[in-house]
Amino acid sequence: MNILIGDIGNTSTKLCLIEYKSFKIKKLIYFKSKKILSNIFLKKILKKMIKKHPIKRVALFSSVVPKYKYIIKNFLKKFYKIKLREIKENKINKVIKINIKNKKQVGSDRIANAVGVFKIYKSNCIVLDFGTATTFDVITKEGIYNGGIIAPGVSLSLNSLVKSADQIPVFSLKKPKKIVGKNTIEALRSGFFWGYTGLINNIISKIEKETSKKYKIIFTGGYADLFKTTIMRSFKIDKNITIKGIIEIFKKNQRYLIK
Q: Which domains does the chain have, with CATH numbers?
């Protein structure tokens, strides 16, 4: 028997098929979230995920896009009789303690990331997620989510600049060979790459200074590999930390979820 779990983001979505008893990942599919608007696409992708695999009639998702969540929720209910649950629902145990003023403001993906690093790494952690926004979340070894930082996402900033400035060409982001660019593309790459490198190093340093603690650094998201040679602190890349967090939340709530 298997379980369907997922992470719906502004830019990309992950669907994952988990083996129920072992909680091992059997299938993992990434796609652009806007494709959720296509009924034909959902039929194709979910048929590929679920076909010939016996599945529990409950799915657990994190979602920061209510519109997309409701579309998938209704689709799963109509075609597969699967009830979609969201990790921020009141009766679902979040596994960690959320130590911020307004808990409703914490995105589901950030909760899942925090749970994932807490359960896997068992230490004080900063999880840096390169998503639509670039987020830094602080989790203690005792399992307390202490808040974080939200900065503009790399792709969002890049696309915004290209759309807003007539003379800025479309370009791919990669590490430049030299800091001073000799043409527009080189200058743009240098500005984005070294700008975000400075942002990452500076924010990590300030978090550690303010809290008087050292942290294990975990990178996830699309640009996690890009900065691996320029970050001053050692870190680990874990592209599936959000999914791992959702799995842990399912484990903790399985008696409630599967009735």
A: 2-86 (3.30.420.40), 97-243 (3.30.420.40)
